[in-house]
Specification:
3 domains; 5-stranded mixed sheet; disordered N terminus
Amino acid sequence: MDGSRKVSHDQNFKNLIIDYPLQAIELFSPEEAGRIRWQARVVPLRQEQLKERLGERFRELDVPLMVEWPGGQREALLFVFEEETDPQRFSIHRLAHYCLDLSELCETNRVVPVVIFLNTWGSEPVQLKLGGDSHEYLRFQYIRCALQELNAEDYWNSSNLIARLCLNLMQWKADQKLEVYARAVRGLSMLEPDPEKQLKYIDFIDIYSALDDNEMEQYKAQYPQESNTMATLSERLRAEGMQQGMQQGEAAALKKLISLKYGELPGWAEEQIHSATLPELEMWLETILSSDTLETLLSRY
């Protein structure tokens, strides 16, 4: 964890939960996940709206998720996820207050609070009881998921992408560090087909693995396939980004020259420039001075 001190764990886990909500429910709250079918729709509730409507009562925790069933087969179920890096800062009173606020706001009593502990001493309060000498009037508890208490080897080949991404936050032996990293990278490349998300979450793996230069060299030698896969992806996306940047720059320059020579850019020309390739944009920039009309210039398209 030393290499991740300056990183916002809260934002990392918000991204993780928003990008993979069903996997988050499955890993962090298995008690409830078994009753949720994959055709259910999961909707993150916007925190800006919650803040505006809850007013001063708002507690900024992680993203609440509303699970809805098709055709209204069952009443919606609200999941409230909170990530805690420092267990000393956890407040069960704050969590209970927030869940009650959300229950009232969303007009439902079907609320599942989940706390993800990145670090734990095993002594965090798990339930809150309010009452007097004669009766107990309120009891509140939550689903506790302490990643340090999970055995990484149990998730070596998991089909849950969040489990694979979080392997480094689980228990593992000192000599398994490179294996943990390789299993996480392998899971990312197998379970996430989107190249941009692959690149996004290789950063997540790197943050929580914190391999030093020597360890990275050992990893490349011991796991060449995983290493080459991510290196190739990174190079390709970097090249695509440079290409896109050049295209945008050429298009902006062309539109400025067109407005100076021909006047306001019509919609049809805007669309043509937007869909043009880089060589076409370069050709139009070269021939604009010799073209009498905009139609003549872009007829070369």
